[in-house]
Amino acid sequence: MASHRRPKQPSRTRVTVLTATAAAAVALTSQAAHADPKPTKSEVKAKVDKLYHEAEAATEKYNGAKEQQDKLKKQAEALQDKVARGQDELNTLRRELGSLATAQYRSGGLDPSVQLLLSSDPDRFLDQASALDQLTAKQAESLQKVQAKQRTLAQQRKEAQGKLNDLADVRETLGKSKKKFQGKLADAQKLLNTLTAAERAKMSEDEQRVSRAAGDRVDLGHEVPASALGAAALQAADTRVGKPYVRTATGPDSFDCSGLTQWAYAQAGAQITRTTYTQINEGTRIARSQLKPGDLVFFSNTTHVGLYAGNNTVLHAPYPGAYVRYESMNTIGSFQAAVRI
Fold this sequence. Notes:
The chain is an alpha+beta fold. The protein has helices at about 10-35, 40-105, 110-120, 120-190, 195-215, 230-240, 255-265, 275-280; strands at about 285, 295-300, 305-310, 315, 325-330, 335-340.
């Protein structure tokens, strides 16, 4: 006789687990179907270039803070040296004043008129009294010198402390700027790491080829330089074509953008400041239509600078991963200003 027992129903717990598992599988499948595709090499390069430009802006702020730090440090040290020498001078004046006070004390404590009456040699006493008056006058003069030196020393100490406080603020700015550009560079490296080693090598090779080709094929026209100084600076920068961009570098074998312009003008015999933010305030401002070879051209809110080379072209150190090269102004960024040194 066949069994007619009803089949055992799965427990509610088991049904719940199976349902949850199935739902999770569907969700994962859906996420996989809608996941963002891996960015192409060109997309990665575009994002990396953007991060590099942002890192360059932070680097320029770092360079400016570093330059300011060096100046403040020298000023603070000079003031501290003045304070030390002033303290030595004050100590000397105090010793002299002490010696005068001791000499006056030893001269006696009686009223001068009484001393004259009691003196067996009035003429000699009068001579001594005259010397005592001179001693008192000298003591007063020494006291005035001590007081003046104390006031000067207090002012110098105040100035030195002010410089040290400024130095502390600048060092804080320096640290923030450094952290920012290092963060941008780290983000860029993460993006690059999404590419294969072969793709990264190809990107680097393409960058070098672009730099070489820009130098080989550049048509600068026949524009007259801004000046002999500008022509010499441009000629010096031309010898650096192909050198790598390295943040905070000032040559001669690697540069950042303002490091290249500073180095080029130094070779021409002119000392200009270190950063884009200060170089823009040197020389004479000119309109874009007035540009001549050797002028400084600034881009993207004064975060980038290059030397105008003629025919709408600049010679510059572009960004990390790139090399010193000639490039059309139309491909660099938004024109900000131009300066003739």
